[in-house]
Amino acid sequence: xxxxxxxxxxxxxxxxxxxxxxxxxxxxxxxxxxxxxxxxxxxxxxxxxxxxxxxxxxxxxxxxxxxxxxxxxxxxxxxxxxxxxxxxxxxxxxxxxxxxxxxxxxxxxxxxxxxxxxxxxxxxxxxxxxxxxxxxxxxxxxxxxxxxxxxxxxxxxxxxxxxxxxxxxxxxxxxxxxxxxxxxxxxxxxxxxxxxxxxxxxxxxxxxxxxxxxxxxxxxxxxxxxxxxxxxxxxxxxxxxxxxxx
Length: 246
Fold this sequence. Notes:
By secondary structure, this protein is mostly helical. It is built from 9 helices and no strands. The longest helix has 35 residues. The chain is flat and about 75 Å long.
């Protein structure tokens, strides 16, 4: 390529501002991406993701059988499932807030449902633990939580479908899916409790009432979740339509 000012031709066809033989921007990005993929933490995360996906598919197609087969080694998979349940529940309500154009979206529409769902799942684990302790049943806590988390896998799928249904304005259907996903929390509690030999001690307080209390306590947390989100939405709507604010 000739120099327009009549000097020696440019040795760099890309222009005088680019060094000859220097790495192209695309090559730099590619090298950085390869370096990131070779990072030990990224590779560990990929491995965990592959293991969880295999676990998830097995538990989704055969939840009860998988629950019977899991060991405490699957504890992390169950924690991931519980985390996904809390996050997806929060995303459902966040989508609901956005669709209805409610002000102050992030706090009442995402953080509050996230925290309350996490508390509800923790209460579900604690209630199951308490019933088994009162029954004087011998069990491993990590295995107990692993079994609970395994049975929550269908709830994750229902929450994903609920969010997608809400996005395309199938409001009644999405609400039904949300309620069904919450129902799996109670199914998990009762199914796991009956994996152990209940009523092993002779006393006046029957096991049925212990199970009922465990369900009612957990149900109250999820009732508070829905009630507080509805109250937050109502407050946001009033605040958005009021000319003076609230």
